[in-house]
Amino acid sequence: MAGQSQGSNARLLDKVSVLGSQIAGGGAQAALPVVAVDREQIDATGATNGNELFRSLPQFGDVAVTEKGTTNAGRNSNVARGDVGSINLRNLGAKYTLLLINGRRTVQHPISNSGDDTTYNANAIPTFGLERVNLLLDGAASIYGSDAVAGVVDLVTPSNLPSGGGIKLNYGKVADGHREDISLDGYFGSDFAQGRGNISALYGVSKRTAQRNSDAWFTATDGRRPLGDGTSVPDPDGTSGFSTRTPWGHFDTYAGSRRTGSWHVDPASGALVSGAVPTRYHYDSAAEPGITSAPSINKGNVFASGRFDATDNLQLFGELAYYRASSESWVSSESGFGGDGFLLHIRPDAYWVPDALRGADAIRLLNYQFADSGIRKVKVDNDQSRVLLGVRGWTDGGWNWESALLYSRARSTDTQQGGLTDAFIAAVNRTDAGAYNPFSGGDPASIRLGDATPYDTAAFIGEATREGTTELALWDFKINRSDLFTWYAGDIGLAAGVEYRYESREDDRDENIDGSRPYTDWYTGTVAASNFFTHSPRPDVRGSRNVKSALIELAVPLVSPTQGIPLVQSLDLQLAGRWEDYSDAGKVAKPKLAAAWKVNGSLLLRGSVSGGFRAPGLELVNSPPTYGFGFNNDAIRCHALITKGAQPDYSACLNAYSSGSSVKPSVSAVTSYGDDVKPETTRQSSWGAVFEPQFLPDSLGSISLSVDAWRVQVENPINTLGEELLYDAYLRVVEGSSNPNVVRAEVTAEDAALFAGSGLAPAGVVTHVYNRYQNRRPLTASGVDYNFTWRLRETAWGNFAFLLSVSQLKQYTQQKPAEVQQVAAAIANGQLNIIAPDLGAANEVGINGAKPEWRASATLIWNLQDWTVRLRDDYIDSVTAGAFSDRRPFVVGSTQRWALSVKKDFNTGRLTGTAVEVGARNLFNEEPPLNATGSYLSALHETYGRYVHLDISKNW
């Protein structure tokens, strides 16, 4: 921005702020492991939104909530979609990271992926013009309150901009894909009242086109086959990876409660044939033209700040911000799997029922792909607003004080096209030619795609809308003084404050999903709470809480340089404590102790210990039991089939059965939150060193090296067991009992035949699984952060800055429940013929497609007069995801993605203040590595290839 040269930017990299302390000045600030990512580094990432920015910083972990992970995989609104990205320090999970804007809280995103998986929206921040992003890599609950367990992210926007402004036009495009970006960003500043006041603002509008499945081979088809060397190839004519749904139908005939036959349409003849649907008829939904892997997004953002000096000792200040984004995705044509929670029965007298089926009492439709419905639109509108009014002052006695009122609200409206069950049953059971015909099959010329004889689906394809709203209202009052009194080692500083905040969350589901419009199956009388195809029912949720808190902090010097103590140039302590009173979670007080020991002018040692606290999310606390339907692998059935020799191994068994079968039944998962669940308590510690050699000659530049080890323990994390069916298999095989949380139907003759010869008592088909949120055994994570900076200034060849940031996650250990340990032991010793990779792993680093051990970034910035070149490399370590048939873990390789940009500033004539920049992300057009099923890991990797961009800016 105006008033700062490129040279000065390079010299100010990694400038540390006072994030983590309320006391201005003082040696105790050196105890805080704070990393500042300034504007030059932000520009070097080439990021176009907050999601891309945070992905590129090694201190951040997996991005569980992302615009890419929720379009094709998330075909219903039970996940956050649209212009959204989560923020996850330390890989502990987004719920443990606190986000601040200019030192104060902001509102959370209103849609979560589950009851306790809440996040802030990284894409709601204006990345253009950010002054810096400060990362406090230490527990800070004793300073900022709950959520600050893994650390704090503070977004610092520019203020007091000099009168003038700037504008920037950006165009970017993926070299081999449909994604295009165009944006217009700007800023302005204006003084008024003879310089006593100032208004500064950032603004931007952008338009992004969607990325399509067809843009990359690994998203263009569901058919992908892993090879023995760990790579994958497209396999559109293969047998694995495809949905079990098909337009060729799966029709079961019934007489009373007895199934009398199973039928499907033969593509060659168009006639009904009996028997199971062959795998080669399964639909390739990813290949439907127009499907998107990332949405199109239109977005606008404005952030304004102002201040006015009422007197020499009194200042008014404020912020006003608004963000709005509208996204559009396209998902596959509708499908109906007809499971126990979504029974679809056709009457025998319906118009299009073939003569061979008319003698049945009912025809059950299973795993049907409505290929004639066409691809379906998902539209998500997000908005977020923020208003802050404050006053700060300085007393003649040396006290600084500040108070502010803040209100912030976020809203998300998710609207999706899909099938309405009652309307479909009415349409398919008509007795005239206007009835919908599911017996016409697909396209014989393209068995796995399309429909050559489409019928009108308009009668039952409708829309379902989910609207979420979150609010944050906050008032605080803070005082601080860096020299409360003086003792032998220097000034003792004090900060204190009080805060009151109100938080609310409302989740309003569509009437077809929240139980207001249930569907009753005409044949069995079964009532389904959800009337929307393949969408589990979810209740409306509303909840709020009030939080009162008080803070006190001391900065205490123990040794000062004037004392002349060998090897102790200075020693400073930070002592802090925070008390909080939750209206729904009780009271808590947590302390913090941090120390900074400056050995000499070049070496600093630092460390801290603290306690933390996190109340369960409002959605989790206020939600009644929820019912989710999905296909689950019933491990005991595959164990029985392998034991008696009917299947060679576990992988082959799962591949041999389709979803909806007794091996992969449709299961109602009932999730509940008990009154005995307690808030989470945590312990954090960190220790490290900073080495900045002062003895180097200026010709070698300046060097800074820091190493900080950290450890976080969540003493009683809130979660579900998650392995109820595996535990049921263990009990049946090893102990001859069963899991009461797994509910099964009565044993049938088919069940008895499947288990015959296995030596096991037959088990009925699974109908329900009960999952209960409870406080689980401790979770411990630890790691090391490395940061290296080298700067060489004002040479004949220009200014140089090299920055290396490395984050190592050494441990992520969730002490396994006894039930899971028993299952893992039984698999390991051969008692259970089941493959469950890493089930009993003590350390989860780098397994299950998540939490890589190493992340790193290296940035080189060269500036000479009007030219600036930035080169950056982002590295993500390998992980395992899945297993080969011989149980060897499948390794998803490491990645390196390079970014390069070249910028020219014009400082003479009419072009003064103009700059032109060209650059590329993923410079070498690398593809993401794939897992054992040939899918990319959206939480770790991006899918697009080389992305080139052109920026033209003008400052005045």
From TrEMBL:
Residues 32-152 form the TonB-dependent receptor plug domain. Transmembrane segments: none annotated. InterPro entries: Beta-barrel_TonB_sf, Plug_dom, Plug_dom_sf. Its main location: membrane. GO terms for cellular component: cell outer membrane. It comes from the Bacteria. Keywords: Cell outer membrane, Membrane, Receptor. It is found in: Cell outer membrane. Gene3D superfamilies: TonB-dependent receptor, beta-barrel domain, TonB-dependent receptor, plug domain. Residues 220-244 are annotated as: Disordered. Pfam families: Plug (PF07715). This is TonB-dependent receptor plug domain-containing protein. It comes from Stenotrophomonas lacuserhaii.
